Amino acid sequence: LFNVIAAIFVENVVIGAKTSARLVRRQRLRDKAFYASKVVELVEMIVVASTEGMPHTGRVASMSIEELIEKCKGAKLTPELFEALRMQPRFCEMFSDLDIAEDDQFELFDMLDIDGSGTVDIEELLDGISRLRGEARRSDVISLTFMIRNSQLEVRKIIEHHATYMRNMIQELACQRAHNAAPGEPCVVPATT
After folding, report:
1. pTM listed for this prediction
2. CB neighbour burial string for 90-104, b if at least 16 within 10 angstroms, e if fewer
């Protein structure tokens, strides 16, 4: 009987802890001031590391927001710099504070490099972080499904266009061969009398 009571008590404590953790995460996602301060700290860390070198151990109190904005205009995050920053516990803590899942942090650079340029600019970083925050919701999955469906339709149209173009080219080449036309000359079928 004691074991049953203890099991029920432990189960209720675990459920309470999970609920509490969810509420804290939900509040953190809604707290715009917290998000803004963490993003500024993250950008500042990247700018300082890219301009002044590693390591960066804390906030640079002398840098104003205006200076930070000016410095980050041309800042690019390379894979090497990102990996060097990722080795610093404070950098990873900031992503955790921003509710970026630990599993996502390993492939984060590739996820953030939207244009495939091999670098991540500050705009890509901020856009990616805002999209990766928190857990995936049903609306995220539905939105992604619609985007994939739209992409598939666009690819299908492109394939159909190219297939039509290729059929026309094959017909033109066949006509040129059949009537001994030179390459590049339009194929004129002689009139039959």
Report:
1. 0.52
2. ebeebbeebbbeeee
Concatenated DSSP letters for 79-134? HHHHHHHHTSHHHHHHHHHTT--HHHHHTHHHHH-TT-SSSEEHHHHHHHHHHHSS
Q: What is the pLDDT of residues 29-81, one digit of tens each?
A: 567 778 888 888 888 888 777 776 655 454 444 566 677 777 777 778 888 88
Q: Greatest CA separation found in the chain?
A: 108
- What is the distance between the terminal CA atoms of the chain, rounded to a whole angstrom? 107
Distance CA 147, CA 150 (A): 5
CA distances from 98 to 4, 19, 23, 179, 188 (A): 39, 19, 15, 70, 68
Q: Judge contact between 132 and 100, C-beta under 8 A.
A: yes
Residue 1 has, within 13 A of its CA and on its CB side, a CA count of 0
Structure tokens at 4: 């049953």
User: What's the chain's Rg over C-alpha atoms?
Assistant: 29
Separation of alpha carbons 78 and 45, rounded Å: 14
Q: Contact 62/37 with Cβ under 8 angstroms?
A: no
Residues near 81 by Cβ (< 8 Å), separated by ≥ 6? Answer: 46, 49, 50
Q: Sign of dihedral through CA atoms 21, 26, 32, 38?
A: positive
